[in-house]
Amino acid sequence: MTKIVIKFGGSAITRKRETTKFSKAIGEIISRSHEYIKYNDINKLGRAVFNARTKDPDLQLVILNGAGPFGHYLVNERGKGDMTITPDLVHQSVEHLNYEVASKLEACGVKTVSIHPFNTCSFDGEHNISELWNIAKAYMNVGSTPIPMSYGDLVPTVGCRGEYFAKYQMISADDLAVKIAKDWSADKIIMVTDVSGVYTEDPSMPNAKLIQKIVTDKDFGRVIQKHNIRFSESSIDITKGLFGKVSKLCNAAYETGIVSQICGVDGLEAALAGKEVGTLIVRQ
């Protein structure tokens, strides 16, 4: 039985960088969400998951989705001093995105059940996801359907202060992916982005080369140097963009041996089939 944690990145399912007209009112966020959600790409992801489960009915999955502008933009604005951005607004915004993603997956024949971090996780200096994970495992103990699903969100703090909100701290889908994969002893983490994997530099640059395999090391700085990676900065991503993802995945590989794979939307089905598409992150 193969166990895989899939994370649909915010850049893969939303127009993450197009935030100039993104609203700060939940009614308008919902009514205009179609302007920011990549429904065609979510359909591709849904079909890839459906096909993989059809070929291997015993394949066990957990699906996570990133927040895109539905979370990152709003929290960034709060960080700039906009106190009208409340924890409830951020949560309702990312919850709506998750609802839209789950609905599209179901239309592709992939039934999921969403577990909301806002109500099931906490932060006391470290993220505690035990309640969320216990609920997910309860569903998996019943059978392979529905697939447990969660997403990047805010979670209440316990005995400490949050970074952007006094009583709440962010938990990214990247954080959830690594924590779940470790606890579950998953075979692989697959992260889907809007590019085909990790490149030596911004993929739009003419000399950018896809890195097919990253061999991790205790010192992430050495990993970057060894593979000659120059990460481009994201002005919106509060979780440090691809740099943050690769750092967390390298650390997970080094500590536990969990293999990770970063690929584009069109590479998910091949990645689920065990093919070496995109970028693999492995321990020596």
Describe this structure in words.
The protein has helices at about 10-15, 25-30, 40-55, 70-80, 85-105, 115-120, 130-140, 175-185, 220-225, 240-255, 270; strands at about 5-10, 60-65, 110-115, 120-125, 125-130, 145-150, 155, 170, 190-195, 215, 260-265, 280. With about 280 residues, it is of the alpha/beta class. It has a single domain, classed as Carbamate kinase. An 8-stranded mixed sheet has the order 3-6-2-1-9-11-12-10, with helices on both faces. The protein is globular, with a radius of gyration of 18 Å. The two termini are about 25 Å apart.
Helices, strands, pairings?
Blueprint lengths: L2 E6 L1 H4 L12 H6 L7 H17 L4 E6 L6 H8 L7 H21 L4 E3 L2 H4 L1 E2 L3 E2 L1 H13 L4 E5 L1 E4 L11 E4 L1 H12 L3 E6 L19 E3 L4 H7 L14 H16 L2 E6 L3 H5 L6 E4 L2
Parallel strand pairs: 1-2, 1-9, 2-6, 3-6, 9-11, 10-12
Antiparallel strand pairs: 4-5, 7-8, 11-12
Q: Oligomer, anyone?
A: single chain
Number of domains: 1
Give the strand order of the largest sheet, numbering strands 1, 2, ... along the chain. 3-6-2-1-9-11-12-10
CATH superfamily: Acetylglutamate kinase-like
The total of helices stands at 11
- Give the low-pLDDT segments: none
- CATH fold descriptor: Carbamate kinase
CATH architecture, by name, is 3-Layer(aba) Sandwich
What is the class in the CATH system? Alpha Beta
